[in-house]
Amino acid sequence: MTNRYSIKDLEILSGVKAHTIRIWEKRYNLLSPERTDTNIRFYNDSDLRKIINVAFLVRHQFKISRISTWEPARIQAEVLNISNNSGEKDELTEQLISCLISFENQKFLKLVNDIIHDLGNEEAYTKVFFGFLEKVGLYWQAGVLYPAQEHFVSNVLRQKLLAEIEFAEAENKNQPTMLFFLHENEMHELGLLFYSWIARKLGYNVIYLGAQVPFEDLQKVASATHLDSVLTSFVNPMEEGFFLDYLQKLLQLFPNQKIYVAGYQVVNIMAELPQGIEAIRDYKALKQKLTK
Fold it and tell me: Which of 16, 19, 18 shows the shortest CA–CA distance to 58?
């Protein structure tokens, strides 16, 4: 089934202003939108891919008057040529997206390995992969990517982190113990896993429970194990009432531990946190907290 996009959709997904898209249509016949029975203009998957590729070339100093005369195959070839010879982080994200859309899994895996080799794990995730995952989420919401593609990406990056975590296992069991978990309705685990890797590298003894942990399980862990600190993350949309209630429950369960909270909802939405709860805005902030 072909997806339909408004010009606003194209603007969001491509980064090209709707006004500019209209100019490119009228002056260069770049796109030919269709119309619904009620005469509303819409675009298809081919239009979206074309505008993304054209925007990429324009950013690399190609003139729109020149690009507009090319066949789709020529446009794609030019994009791939630039991508294959570039080391910029944004372009690495575009390369990953391109492989994912066409489901070139071997090429995708090689690109992931090359990025990790060139940048190292820490920079690969913070400067490329997390931004890439945000774009994957946007494309999935727009129907450009299938859920299976998103799962494929998450599993690949998760496996890479797990391999690194094995090497970062704290040898000194007298080091502080830190618990990592997500609440029962939270599934986005990759950021939490990355933070647990940072803690391990700093010598912490990490207890990692993962995603969708029932509160009853936390109670059992708290009663059976000595903990120095805990970290959880909030990515899914949620009501503020749930968030604050959950934090109060954590404060009651872990009265003597440091409690850290991270994730999109904490960074971008939530107001002042209850006393005893510390926000972690990024991995650098976590490193500062854990090395004090």
Answer: 16
The answer to whether 147 and 124 are in contact (CB under 8 A) is no
Q: Yes or no: say if 180 and 208 are a contact pair by the CB < 8 Å rule.
A: yes
Q: Tell me which of 285 and 79 has the higher pLDDT.
A: 285
What pLDDT sits at residue 256?
A: 93
Residue 72 scores a pLDDT above 90:
no
What tens digit of pLDDT does each residue of 190-215 get? 899 999 999 998 889 999 999 999 99
C-beta separation of 233 from 261 below 8 A? yes
* Domain span including residue 235: 169-290
In a domain, 1, yes or no: no
Q: How far apart are CA 64 and CA 282, in angstroms?
A: 38
Packing angle between helix 18-28 and helix 7-14, nearest 10 degrees?
Answer: 110
Q: How far apart are CA 196 and CA 174, in angstroms?
A: 17
Q: Is the Cα dihedral 71, 76, 79, 82 positive or negative?
A: negative
Do residues 91 and 104 make contact, with C-beta atoms less than 8 angstroms apart?
A: no
Q: Are residue 155 and residue 280 in the same domain, yes or no? A: no
State the helix-helix crossing angle for 89-101 and 105-119, rounded to 10 degrees. Answer: 160
Q: pTM of the entire structure?
A: 0.66
* Mean pLDDT over each residue of the chain, to the nearest integer: 85
